[in-house]
Specification:
Layout lengths: L3 H11 L2 H16 L4 H12 L3 H46 L6
Helix pairs in contact: 1-4, 2-3
Length: 103
């Protein structure tokens, strides 16, 4: 399964409603306290009180989602870079064919 949306749904399904609520409340509190990134995630995850099995599954799903996201960003970057180079090449041709007066 390589669809990020499906994997995120699986990630969401790992926790019970109570765990999700506890995680959400802690995340809100941690954000108010200025926590970010890894520290924010750690605080929220701790509040959810997941079982070892849940933690393992969450970690695995996050790793796969992260990998797929990086791959998607890389592909998009390559497309944008190619498009940008094409536009610059076309602009160079246009500039040679239709020089601008600098007067």
């Amino acid at each position: 399964m390589s669809n990020i949306t499906e994997l995120q749904q699986k990630l969401d399904d790992v926790q019970t409603d109570e765990q999700k609520e506890a995680r959400k409340a802690e995340q809100k509190q941690a954000l108010a306290e200025g926590l970010k990134g890894v520290k924010l995630r750690a605080a929220a995850d701790a509040a959810a009180r997941m079982t070892d099995e849940q933690k393992k599954l969450v970690d695995e799903l996050r790793q796969v989602i992260s990998k797929l996201s990086r791959e998607r960003r890389s592909k998009l970057h390559a497309i944008v870079t190619d498009k940008k180079q094409d536009c610059q090449s076309q602009q160079a041709v246009n500039d040679r064919l239709h020089p601008r007066n600098n007067e």
